[in-house]
């Protein structure tokens, strides 16, 4: 028993010695940082002193320039006076020997004129006025105020061993945030920021991952990073070169991307859909979902709150298959059965409708920056272009294989998808093809350009259904959204929100789903 007692006592003493060593190390660091702080204060104050000295020299130089200018003017005036004086003396020399009255009278007349002209140089042409002022404006008070506010000495009572970090669920290709909360020794959350938080994030192979630290100035800090690949990651967080609680953190970045929200069930009520095939998002914060099976458009907020319905117009016989938003904030609907394109306002009132004799099975449409309407016709295997008034412009294609959707690119290119993704000029000339990765035969249900360099397309093949994200310029495939925990079933139309969210109509599940894609 005595041996156990001695062993435990030895452990206690070892820990206490280690604690004393740690505290002494911190005292040494404190002395060092205090000296460094002294030096920094002296340097910054010297910079202010140097600035004041420069201003003093500028003011003195200004006085010297003014004095020299004034002095030069007065010296020039003295020269004139001396010159005039010499002239008078020359005129008067020998007058004591002058006896001719006429000559004397002329000299007196000349001197009278001279006396009158001398009045102009009697007064100094400059003055001796020079005055320094420092209270003519608020500069003096501003300097005093600025000096009172200049510099600050910060300290911190943050206790790293109690600081915490929370890591949210992570998916590859999506920006992730780790929230750090600072506490003091008593366990109280800090109310200010400024702590020297150091982040080191590494992939399982040791590669460093770029992070961005945001100080919220309220005792919390956000660490943002974008994991490029799934796998195991390790995050080290230190404050004052000491690890926070539970650091390092080990977490897994998933290869799956799941919806952040979902709306709809099969049915005909306010919260139901029956085969939703397309949707558009407006700049005023509304979503318009083409609920084909119910022959209506469901209007929602971007947070999926129900607002109302637009019924019937352009959606007869449950045959509305495409929807687009115009530059005038009106909706265009294409009906494959009636072969009509219908324009309605947000209240559902019909503005215009038109068709074309060569339409066979028009299934989708898109509108470019000029307001021109491009209609994809599956039966005619072609794309038709119309002016905003409905006037026919052109037709191109005939080589498409079951067109599914159409979209507009950043320079008004026409993007058409069937089993491929092809890009054409607004005049119908082929530009390039974007190769879609997948297994076996596939079909795209919807496609959209997000205005930020990304092209998103829904795709279904024998491996399942998902949303693919491409770089529009290079055409490179970036990643897929697989909706692993809420599988997509025949995803069709989709549209993006301005905060890197995409909403897709999940036709087979009679709902819509929202995902992050960055």
From TrEMBL:
Any coiled-coil regions, as ranges: 13-40, 71-121
One Pfam short name: Filamin
Keywords: Coiled coil, Metal-binding, Repeat, Zinc, Zinc-finger
Keyword Zinc: yes
Domain of life (superkingdom): Eukaryota
NHL repeat residue intervals: 260-303, 348-389
Gene Ontology terms: biological process: proteasome-mediated ubiquitin-dependent protein catabolic process; protein polyubiquitination
Gene Ontology MF annotations: ubiquitin protein ligase activity; zinc ion binding
Each Filamin repeat, start to end: 188-253
SMART domains listed in its UniProt record: IG_FLMN
PANTHER family on file: E3 UBIQUITIN-PROTEIN LIGASE NHLRC1-RELATED, PROTEIN LIN-41
UniProt-recorded name of the protein: Tripartite motif-containing protein 2
Taxonomic lineage from the root: Eukaryota, Metazoa, Ecdysozoa, Arthropoda, Chelicerata
């Amino acid at each position: 028993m005595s041996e156990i007692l001695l062993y435990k006592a030895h452990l206690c003493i070892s820990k206490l010695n280690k604690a004393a060593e740690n505290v002494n190390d911190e005292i040494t660091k404190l002395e060092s940082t205090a000296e460094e702080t002294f030096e920094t204060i002296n340097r910054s104050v010297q910079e202010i002193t140097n600035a004041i000295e420069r201003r003093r020299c500028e003011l003195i130089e200004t006085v010297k320039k003014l004095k020299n200018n004034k002095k030069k003017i007065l010296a020039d005036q003295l020269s004139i006076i001396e010159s005039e004086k010499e002239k008078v003396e020359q005129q008067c020399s020998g007058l004591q020997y002058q006896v001719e009255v006429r000559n004397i009278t002329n000299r007196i007349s000349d001197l009278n004129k001279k006396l009158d002209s001398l009045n102009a140089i009697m007064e100094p042409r400059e003055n001796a006025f020079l005055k320094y002022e420092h209270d003519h404006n608020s500069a003096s008070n501003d300097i005093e105020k600025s000096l009172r506010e200049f510099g600050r000495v910060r300290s911190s009572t943050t206790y790293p061993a109690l600081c915490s970090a929370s890591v949210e669920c992570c998916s590859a290709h999506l920006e992730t945030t780790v929230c750090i909360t600072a506490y003091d020794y008593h366990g109280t959350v800090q109310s200010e920021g400024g702590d020297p938080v150091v982040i080191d994030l590494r992939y399982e192979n040791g590669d460093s991952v770029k992070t961005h630290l945001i100080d919220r100035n309220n005792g919390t800090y956000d660490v943002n990073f974008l994991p490029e690949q799934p796998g195991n990651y390790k995050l080290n967080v230190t404050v004052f070169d000491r690890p926070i609680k539970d650091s390092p953190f080990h977490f897994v970045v998933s290869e799956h991307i799941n919806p952040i929200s979902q709306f709809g069930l099969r049915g005909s009520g306010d919260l139901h859909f029956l085969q939703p095939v397309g949707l558009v998002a407006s700049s005023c914060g509304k979503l318009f979902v083409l609920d084909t099976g119910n022959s209506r458009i469901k209007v929602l907020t971007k947070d999926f709150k129900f607002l109302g319905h637009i019924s019937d117009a352009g959606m007869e016989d449950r045959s509305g298959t495409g929807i687009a938003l115009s530059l005038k904030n009106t909706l265009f609907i294409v009906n494959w059965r009636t072969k009509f394109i219908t324009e309605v306002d947000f209240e559902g009132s019909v503005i215009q409708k038109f068709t074309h004799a060569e339409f066979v099975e028009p299934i989708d449409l898109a509108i470019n920056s000029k307001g021109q309407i491009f209609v994809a016709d599956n039966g005619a295997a072609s794309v038709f272009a119309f002016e905003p008034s409905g006037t026919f412009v052109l037709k191109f294609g005939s080589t498409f294989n079951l067109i599914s959707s159409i979209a507009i690119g950043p320079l008004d290119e026409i993007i058409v998808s069937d089993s491929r993704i092809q890009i054409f000029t607004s005049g119908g000339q082929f530009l390039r093809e974007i190769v879609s990765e997948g297994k076996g035969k596939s079909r795209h249900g919807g496609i959209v350009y997000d205005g930020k360099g990304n092209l998103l397309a829904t795709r279904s093949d024998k491996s399942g259904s998902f949303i693919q994200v491409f770089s529009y310029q290079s055409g490179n495939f970036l990643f897929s959204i697989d909706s692993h925990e809420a599988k997509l079933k025949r995803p069709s139309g989709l549209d993006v929100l301005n905060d890197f969210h995409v909403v897709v109509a999940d036709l087979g599940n009679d709902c819509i789903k929202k995902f992050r894609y960055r």
